[in-house]
Amino acid sequence: MRTIQLAAINIAMHQPHSAAQYVRVFEAAYRMKRTLRQGSLRAMLLGTLYTSELPDRLTGVIYRFVKIDPNEPWFNSMTQEQATDEELEKIEIPAHLLPHLQQFPFDFRPESHMLYYVAHDRANHMAPAVAVRFLENLLNQAAATAGAPPLEVTAVPEVGALDRMLSIPVLSRLEIELKRPNPDDVGAVARRFLERLEAQNARKMTQELVAEAGQTLTPDRDTAELAVVAATNGKVRVQGRDENNMRFDDSTDSRPLLEPVLLDEELETTFQVLGRAADNKLGQ
Prior knowledge:
The protein has 284 residues and is α+β, with helices and mostly antiparallel strands.
């Protein structure tokens, strides 16, 4: 038995869309076999994808591996010098074999457009911010090829993160960035903001409040509701001072949900754990 950490990501597609559109985009992304760089050494790939019969569930694995440039200098650790041309000629690693493979299983629900993945398992660790960049890049490339609308990708923040940020004793600055929510599952509040964006052909909106000198912000109902929607469809950042009068600067995108879960492989698989988290709407 071991502890793994799960994260949740909201993938919102612009209008017009449907659950079937999500499936088509993921299938297009898988067929592309597109390797995306993560920094100068690592790369990522949507390695496997499985579709359920309905399909009300997509499961798969994101691969991450080291992709080096063989033309860059090599180091000989025995001589403590740069490897010579003669030494390099002895290297016979096929170009299609890439080292240090890490695998991150995921479970995506098209109806709720929420993706749950294993963010940390033993030596494998992929921060939600990394997963967001990978998915937003890959899925928008796939959406363009599949004739689907653009997608906005946001990591779900940890439970209570927004409430803690807005309740600090001195709230001097509040920045809210709202990306278009998904219209299928939003309530009346989120729908109101969505309609404002759509009416103005806007992809996102930002709002910034700065307190008067020596005072603290008191967000009204409209601002508070906007912040709640933006927490899972964009980001919220606050600045001020905490209960110890220490400088406070935090944001929802730096507080992603990382839920520890016990995994006993003698009783269940990683995908069963992910399925349970999805069924229970982890983080929502």
